[in-house]
């Protein structure tokens, strides 16, 4: 057995998973992107917006400002508070005096056996007026929406006959550290699921984003709202997978600048908190969680350090060098492609592949962890790997 055998073996496994990743990206190539459109008011369809919050005083105002300028298709805006102590409730009350569609709903205390956000969504679902609303739109408190967001989502959902539709939001970065960590984390979704822009036919292909997710109300009613996701750490994906499993039509799309988010204050928050849900692991995952992690490790993260190691060792096996060189080139191509998710990129964005290996290790560790902490609350994921 030659000295180069370990590298040859690694490269063979890399190529196996690379074929899976390339095929997935090819299928998602040319995906549909939503363009701002107004809803034909003659349809009479309306949407209730649910915004779950907990201590969001410093981030909520831009979200409410954006929702207030949505059209008449938005008939109510339910801000569901899980027990804020920072003035969030007073802020919502002030906005409710400016727009009668805004209602503050107190959802405290959050039961110990519920994911806090899911409890907020479920409480909001129970408060939605069922006789007038055909749709329910979930918006996170850190989302900044443009005036035609709701009408655009409704128009596409109706024309494509969808029951659920979520958006790959544009991301706002605020520091050099975020420019390194956040894009490396985001890229793991591209490698595991491909690019946004399509409707899903299989549960294992599902992507979803709970920062901006539109549901047909009758589809949610089948599950009594969000109760079935009470133990999920990635409730948005779990809900979308349930819908697809049961034959509902669900899509995931980019929507240009119609909605953007500032997810975290710094890179440490992204590292600690986004990696909690980013594995997208739930009771639907099965072996897909492990296979997806291997794709990230072997196809996204390992090629660059492995190529540098081979060059340092002056290996003469051009097959191994070429294979990893191609994978590094593919990673750089994805880096160029994901740039559109970041309207304002710090210079560090272009060096984010240097974080890929650390990101792969962190996601593997978090996928195995059952107990997670978010804003002082412990969430225990149910389901096995």
UniProtKB/TrEMBL annotation:
Q: Which residue ranges does UniProt annotate as crossing the membrane? A: 290-313, 320-342, 348-368
Could you say which residues form the signal peptide?
none
Q: Name one Pfam family in it.
A: Glycos_transf_2
Q: Name one GO molecular function term.
A: transferase activity
Q: Known Gene3D superfamilies for this protein?
A: Spore Coat Polysaccharide Biosynthesis Protein SpsA, Chain A (3.90.550.10)
Superkingdom field = Bacteria
| Record carries keyword Membrane | yes
Q: InterPro entries per the record? A: Glyco_trans_2-like (IPR001173), Nucleotide-diphossugar_trans (IPR029044)
Q: Residue limits of the Glycosyltransferase 2-like domain?
A: 49-220
Keywords (alphabetical) are: Membrane, Transferase, Transmembrane, Transmembrane helix
Note the PANTHER family from the entry: GLYCOSYLTRANSFERASE, SLR1566 PROTEIN
Return the protein name: Glycosyl transferase family 2
Q: Which organism is it from?
A: Ktedonobacter racemifer DSM 44963
Lineage, top ranks = Bacteria, Bacillati, Chloroflexota, Ktedonobacteria, Ktedonobacterales
